[in-house]
Amino acid sequence: MCAPYRHAGIRAVEIGSLMFGGGGHVPDLELVRLAIPRRVYTQSHIDYVIEAVLEVFEKHDTLLPLKIVEASPQLRHFTARLAEAGS
User: Can you give the pTM of this predicted structure?
Assistant: First the structure.
């Protein structure tokens, strides 16, 4: 979740367990939404996003999982505070 932003400044939001989970509910899909400002919808920027996401994916086995430190019941995917599980 934080990896694309830390690596390349690309904002991402999880659409799955964090957004719809809680209360024992497990969503059918785990998706990620990339927030790319429309003013920079150039081919070179999209190529940069693709390259950055691939670089993060290549390192996926070294990334630490995140845990929820604090979250509100409404809009928890926007308001949650997360920390690396190893810290």
Answer: 0.67
Find all residues with CB under 8 Å of 47, minimum gap 6, and list them.
Answer: none
Position 28 scores a pLDDT of 83
* DSSP assignment string, 2-66: -HHHHHHS-EEEEESHHHH-BTTB--S--EEEEE--GGG--HHHHHHHHHHHHHHHHTGGGSPPE
Q: Taking the chain (87 residues) in consecutive chunks of 10 residues, what is each chunk's mean pLDDT?
A: 72 82 76 80 87 90 86 80 80
> Into how many domains does the chain fold?
1
Domain boundaries, position 44: 3-84
